[in-house]
């Protein structure tokens, strides 16, 4: 066909027919490449490709200007797609020709340009004069499987007249071995599984092209081989890699197999397993897993024993045997007392290491309540038996247990006795009668005895249990504990051999009485000479009795006051010496305190004042002390020459007068 000759191509897309006017320069390309037509207006997304011989579709047109161009008909978008191919891992020499993408007629002023990533840079180049594409290095399909370029037809002014897409496909070679996924492989198959049971799924991948034989995988067994005589056999699906058991279920018995772990070696081949295939292997550990197909059984079906009444804890071991896997739920025994324990006195636990049943008494056995037991014990496993497995005759045990009588201690009807009594009750008062009984069937005799009596206040009649006082009980005693309680214990001792003893505790709450006079402090004070209305001391009253036998307290001065000097002493009665009587005064502060005040000026010296304090009890209790008050010189509010309150610093006459004053006070009380 002459250069510049026009031809048309008629294609049908959907129900529209397109007529494309093309330059004859592109005819060689149409003979060997694809023509892609898209109508983006009428049918977005629709396209049709025409490839191969176009001779029957060509019509020549004459008198067309010698200017290559593409005319759109019905606004159809037309694009040439030129595809080349190059094999990966090429050995060169480089540069190596890939192929021809276009060729201009001799004398044409047009220019061909091929653009895109990788063109005219690593790894491709384009000869615009010859229209050839070259590769400059070895390619790796797994790194990049195709390269996309754009070929442009430019006029002499550099204006783009036409564009053609050029794709260079990298052809795959079998250069990667398949790799197993998910290693290591470990699988378990229950014993007695049916033939055909899935054991494990092998999975591999190949980086070569999955659309070629290079990525087509096949699985096969290396170990066991067909010649191996394993008691357990397997097969693998060559296409999926699924490993299945082919062993007869009766032979797949964990308890009779010579070994319970098997190492299976699987080969995976690419290239559909051909002789040229690349291979890899993986090993899987297959474990034959136990199921509960054996019933536990007692070594004996009956046992007898005797146990003393009152016994607690472990009394018997129950031994069973089980052929299932030791330590597994299929092997571990579970014991149940199905009958013979109406009062729930017994319990059976399992030692997980030995599978021995431990029979224990959890509620003390009483001979007088029940002397003989017949326990029926069954044994199972933690998980149920599988189908078709029956319970054997030795799965039940009979235990004949005799309770042996022993000397039991007497029993107090009230092991803790609480009572309330007034303190100071008369000696010999009976405060309570103890009551105990003997639970033994032959009803032995017993006696009462004091266990503890810290103050020695009590005694007990050994026959009747009557408890009486041996002295007055004092609430203020150091033996009283806590909330006014006195605690004593008493024993009931039988005449068995050996004897048995029980204990009762007596708590006595003592009611308070006003049997203690209040105490007064301090007993010494001072005032500055020449000052009036001076506080000599803050008087404080205390009482070991409880309210209402304690405060509020009343304070007063007694009828006798004594003045003592270092060289001579003078004694005065307050009611005889008006000045002395009016000089001292007690001013109550609250229910427990009062101020002793010097209201007048007195000569320096010591004054022994009778101070009396009384409680509020009935009958009232009073106490009187001699308060040693000193009148002395002061400086800055501090005493300078106060005479000591101690009589050892007094002269003999002063000491004599002091003792006389004290005696007078005592005679007045």
UniProtKB/TrEMBL annotation:
Residues 124-180, 181-298, 295-412, 413-520, 533-641 form the Cadherin domain. It is found in: Cell membrane; Cytoplasm. The lineage of its organism: Eukaryota, Metazoa, Chordata, Craniata, Vertebrata. The keyword Repeat applies. Its main location: membrane. The chain crosses the membrane at residues 649-668. It comes from the Eukaryota. Keywords: Calcium, Cell adhesion, Cell membrane, Cleavage on pair of basic residues, Cytoplasm, Glycoprotein, Membrane, Metal-binding, Repeat, Signal, Transmembrane, Transmembrane helix. GO terms for cellular component: adherens junction; catenin complex; cytoplasm. The keyword Transcription does not apply. InterPro entries: Cadherin, Cadherin-like_dom, Cadherin-like_sf, Cadherin_CS. Residues 1-21 form the signal peptide. One of its GO terms (biological process) is cell-cell junction assembly. SMART domains: CA. GO terms for molecular function: beta-catenin binding; cadherin binding; calcium ion binding. This is Cadherin 13, H-cadherin (heart). PROSITE patterns: CADHERIN_1, CADHERIN_2.
């Amino acid at each position: 066909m002459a250069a510049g000759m026009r031809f048309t191509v008629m294609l049908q897309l959907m129900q529209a027919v397109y007529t494309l006017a093309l330059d004859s320069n592109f005819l060689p390309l149409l003979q060997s490449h694809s023509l892609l037509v898209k109508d983006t207006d009428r049918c977005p997304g629709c396209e049709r490709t025409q490839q191969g011989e176009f001779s029957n579709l060509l019509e020549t047109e004459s008198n067309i200007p010698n200017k290559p161009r593409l005319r759109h008909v019905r606004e159809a978008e037309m694009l040439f797609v030129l595809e080349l191919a190059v094999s990966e891992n090429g050995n060169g020499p480089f540069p190596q020709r890939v192929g021809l993408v276009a060729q201009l007629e001799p004398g044409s002023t047009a220019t061909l340009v091929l653009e895109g990533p990788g063109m005219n840079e690593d790894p491709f180049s384009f000869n615009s004069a010859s229209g050839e594409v070259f590769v400059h290095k070895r390619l790796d399909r797994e790194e990049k499987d195709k390269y996309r370029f754009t070929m442009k037809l430019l006029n002499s002014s550099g204006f783009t007249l036409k564009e053609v897409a050029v794709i260079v496909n990298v052809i795959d070679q079998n250069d990667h071995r398949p790799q197993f996924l998910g290693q290591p492989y470990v699988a378990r198959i229950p014993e007695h599984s049916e033939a055909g049971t899935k054991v494990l799924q092998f999975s591999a991948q190949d980086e070569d092209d999955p659309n070629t034989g290079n990525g087509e995988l096949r699985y096969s067994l290396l170990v066991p081989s067909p010649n191996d005589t394993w008691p357990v056999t397997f097969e693998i699906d060559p296409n999926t890699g699924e490993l299945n058991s082919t062993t007869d279920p009766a032979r797949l018995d964990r308890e009779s197999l010579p070994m319970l772990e098997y190492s299976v070696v699987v080969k995976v081949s690419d290239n559909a397993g051909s002789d040229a295939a690349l291979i890899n292997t993986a090993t899987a550990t297959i474990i034959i897993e136990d199921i509960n197909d054996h019933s536990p059984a007692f070594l004996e079906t009956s046992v007898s024993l005797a146990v003393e009444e009152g016994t607690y804890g472990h009394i018997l071991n129950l031994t069973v045997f089980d052929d299932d896997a030791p330590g597994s739920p299929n092997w571990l025994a579970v014991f149940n007392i199905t009958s013979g324990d109406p009062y729930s006195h017994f319990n059976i636990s399992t030692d997980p290491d030995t599978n021995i049943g431990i029979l224990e008494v959890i509620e003390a056995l009483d001979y007088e309540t029940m002397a003989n037991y017949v326990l029926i014990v069954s044994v199972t496993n933690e998980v149920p038996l599988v189908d078709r497995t029956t319970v054997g005759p030795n799965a039940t045990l009979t235990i004949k247990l005799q309770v042996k009588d022993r000397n039991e201690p007497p029993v107090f009807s009230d092991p803790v006795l609480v009572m309330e009594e007034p303190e100071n009750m008369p000696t010999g008062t009976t405060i309570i009668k103890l009551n105990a009984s003997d639970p033994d069937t032959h009803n032995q005799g017993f006696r009462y005895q004091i266990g503890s009596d810290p103050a020695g206040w009590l005694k007990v009649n050994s026959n009747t249990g009557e408890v009486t006082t041996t002295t007055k009980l004092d609430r203020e005693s150091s033996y009283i504990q806590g909330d006014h309680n006195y605690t004593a214990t008493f024993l009931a001792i039988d005449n068995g051999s050996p004897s048995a003893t029980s204990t009762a505790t007596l708590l006595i709450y003592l009611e308070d009485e006003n049997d203690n006079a209040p105490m007064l402090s301090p007993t010494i004070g001072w005032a500055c000479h020449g000052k009036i209305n001076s506080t000599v001391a803050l008087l404080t009253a205390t009482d070991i009795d409880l309210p209402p036998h304690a405060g509020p307290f009343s304070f007063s001065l007694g009828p006798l006051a004594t003045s003592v000097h270092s060289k001579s002493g003078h004694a005065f009665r307050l009611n005889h010496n008006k000045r002395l009587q009016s000089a001292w005064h007690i001013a109550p502060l609250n229910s427990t305190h009062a101020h002793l005040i010097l209201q007048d000026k007195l000569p320096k010296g010591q004054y022994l004042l009778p101070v009396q304090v009384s409680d509020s009890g009935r009958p009232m209790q009073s106490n009187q002390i001699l308060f040693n008050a000193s009148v002395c010189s002061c400086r800055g509010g501090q005493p300078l020459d106060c005479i000591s309150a101690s009589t050892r610093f007094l002269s003999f006459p002063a000491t004599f007068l002091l003792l006389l004053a004290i005696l007078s006070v005592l005679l007045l009380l």
